[in-house]
Amino acid sequence: MLGLVTSLAAQHPTSRVLVWGGDAEGGAPFVEADPADPSRLRGFDVEVAERLARGLGGRTARFVQVQWSNIDQSVERGDFTLGLSGVEDTPARRARHAVTLRYFEFREVLAVRPEDAARIHGLADLRGRRVATLGATIAYDLLIQARDATGLLPVSYDDDVHPYGDLVAGRVDAVLLDHVIAQRALRRRGGSGGGFVILAPAVAVGHYVGVLARADSALRDSLDVVLREAMRDGSLEQIFRRWDVWDQNQSALFERVLRSEGGATASPAGSHTAAQVVAYLPSFARAAAVTALLSVLSMLLAVIVGLALASGRLYGPAWLRALTTVYIEVIRGTPLLLQLFVIYYGLAGVVRLPAFLAAILGLGLNYAAYEAEIYRGALEAVPRTQLEAGRTLGLSEAQILRLVRGPQALRYALAPMTNDFVALLKDSALVSVITVVELTKQTAIYATNVGSWVVPGALCAVVYLAMSLPLARLARRLERRWGGRAA
Amino acid sequence: MSALLVIDRLRVRYDTRDVLRALSLEVARGELVVLMGPSGVGKTTALRAVAALQSFAEGRIVIEGFALEPGPVPPESRLVPLRRRVGLVFQGHALFEHLSALDNVTLALLHVLGKSRIEAEAAAAELLNSLDVGARASAWPRQLSGGEAQRVAIARALAPNPALLLMDEPTAALDPARRTALGNTLRRLCEQGRGLLVATHDAEFARAHADRVLALS
Description:
Largest interface: A-B, 21 and 26 residues
Number of helices of chain B: 7
Strand content of chain B: 25-35%
Distance between the termini of chain B: 28 Å
Oligomer: heterodimer
Shape of chain A: elongated
Number of helices of chain A: 18
Number of strands of chain B: 9
């Protein structure tokens, strides 16, 4: 109901409410829940939105929570009118949407561990090192370019908190993000003793803008008028000062914006789209290879651990049977996402696993529980007389398992195993939460950068289908050949 | 003639019900003994007890000096002497579906008797030939007729060269001509000095081929 009201309000131009979207998970100083009253929001983007709403004839601002990487899509869908939450000014965004004036200038800055500060002065010094950032940002694009130029290893995160944690923990060697985010992370970690330092020279400069649906360019023009007004009357400066993000660069930006008064916001043409598709193909192929390799290695682990679990459950002493049962039920009864977080972040204090290894462990150990149940069922499906025939010939229990029961159970298990592998292939998309850029994550990055899901989504689906359809066919064939027959 | 198998007052219980009570019999080398009786009378149970697949409550079973006592079935490690002495042909043959006819027969030769593959395959081929199914050595169990499958099952049971062969309802799936052929095969095995204990409800087969018939009721 609330969602319906919200979207109606968002689409109604004469509404007295300006509905704006942002990501409160991104936190202060952009948008965060007020610690004193979590039902209220605070942050400089909250105040900018309120100032803009007031400037549009005294409207009030209403906030809609949206995942940061989905702001563009949501604004086009009409979930809200204005996206505002550290939204970066990029050519792709300008080509696809209506974008406001630049209202804040940020610097892309590198953060490194104190002991590296003397050696690292820029991206060029990071050859072969892991550099973290938020996915689908200007910073990520900079790292991708630097990967090709200098050979550093970009690591993409879904949030802007964990990169700094992993920097301090030694999982990555540097973080490239907006100076606002870097300074916030440093404050949270207790200032200069927080385990990392911010390098002074900026790697690049970018700007925050508001984003609207392409069709809302008239409203965008009105918002630009309000922004200029807010720059002139000092209200924007006051907001930024309150949040301690005001600096000389902002006054220079304001001067530049006010000088170009009346000039329309530049909107480069969208001719780069075809080139972008081609430019993304290598990363896309790499991500598809990551998905395939990750799935194969995880399945291998799942099969080995699953066999051990099933054997323990069928042949083990009572305590082992109980233990394997607990493992299987706990793993099957909790979300894979949670298990991935626990393995990657939860265990970081004990053992610091590389992301790819953590992903294999998470997927493999999760699927092992399902495999174990398949193998147990398959082993139990082998008729008793087959085992007795082995016994009367003088085979030991181990020989019966290896020579009679195992090979026959494999026939029952192959079809469901193949189905599980197809499921694993698709579940592997979840590991992007622990910084592994696989096919789905790469697609999301690609879609954000070109501002559309159509081409990237179709490409991604084709690649998944190319991998899963032959497997599904194989499963059906195996089922026809062996599934229905008793041994 | 010394007894190959002695069953002395065997009693088998399922839960609280006696399936067999005080069964006693002997089988000598060269002798074909038939256990007769309607379904459910305990013929299969008696064979399973001799093959140590089934525990029994009272009595004693001795096969060429190896004794089975009442109580749970001993672990396989203690049954090695018994496994060398006794072969069992299951009702419905229970061939290993994932192995060819030849590999069904070589399995015990390779993995129990430790023969080389060449030796094992030669011995298995000879056994299959002697039972007139040598031509079907490479066939899968599902490709065999009822009679062929049964002869492969006999070859498999004979592979470890047991002195005593147990057979459960061997004529169940055979036409009259095949029944006679089976009878002749079994007589030949007796002539080789083996003892045979056959459970069947086929009175005609028993009359035609048995040295002794023991009727259970």
